[in-house]
Amino acid sequence: MHSWDPDDSRPPYQQVAEIYRRQIKDGDLGPGDSLPSYGDVASSFGVSPGVVKRAFAELRGEGLIVTRHGQGSFVRTEQDAEATPTVADLAAAVRSLTERLEAVERRLP
Hints:
Layout: H1 12-26, H2 38-45, H3 49-61, E1 65-68, E2 72-75, H4 87-107
């Protein structure tokens, strides 16, 4: 049974993500390997499935895993050189572009 450290200042989802991140980086989980279900991981770590879902979302955002609806989560077969942008990254880029566009439009007659 894995466990998260209640004395660690990081939230449990970050701790769970770090454990899987390390297993992927160290080769304990290889390309194409399936990860346990949210429920199995939650039971193993003593956390809620929501914590696991958030941890896996972080790993997806880093380009380490993929999740296929109805099939589960898997270690990516090809690791991205750069992490896949998160929704927050994309939202910030859209805000920046919107501000720049508004500045250009203000200068037009």
